[in-house]
Design brief:
Elements (H helix, E strand, L loop, with lengths): L5 H13 L3 H15 L4 H13 L3 H10 L9 H13 L3 H12 L7 H5 L1
Helix pairs in contact: 1-2, 1-3, 2-3, 3-4, 3-5, 4-5, 5-6
Length: about 120
């Protein structure tokens, strides 16, 4: 079959976010990664955020962890979404660990980081 262009997949992921269809968003991300190896930071950030909003904190944190396997470095948005997902799942130690880890990188925490 034909692979959907990266931008089209990101639009589809965004539409999943509007209706909080996190399973479909993960499937699109997996398809992007396996077919075109082109799931970028925007794609991961979108799906992590959708999982966070759907109270899928475990899935959000797993996606955060596998970003390294896709040779992607998390940015402030990624960390903020993972921290917020941890908070929604009452995983305070994980949230504190992520804030500490973020502080040890070149990524600067922002007001969203500290309010999550």
């Amino acid at each position: 079959g034909l692979a959907m262009p990266c931008n089209s997949c990101n639009v589809a992921i965004g539409q999943c976010g509007e209706s909080i269809q996190w399973q479909r968003a993960i499937a699109l991300l997996a398809g992007m990664q396996s077919v075109v190896h082109d799931a970028g930071i925007v794609s991961y950030n979108s799906v992590i955020s959708i999982c966070r909003r759907a109270s899928g904190w475990e899935t959000a944190l797993c996606l955060f962890a596998v970003m390294g396997q896709a040779f992607l470095e998390p940015d402030t948005i990624t960390y903020n979404s993972a921290i917020s997902a941890s908070e929604k799942g009452a995983q305070w130690l994980i949230a504190l660990y992520l804030v500490t880890t973020m502080g040890q990188t070149i990524i600067e925490p922002d007001t969203i980081t500290y309010s999550s």
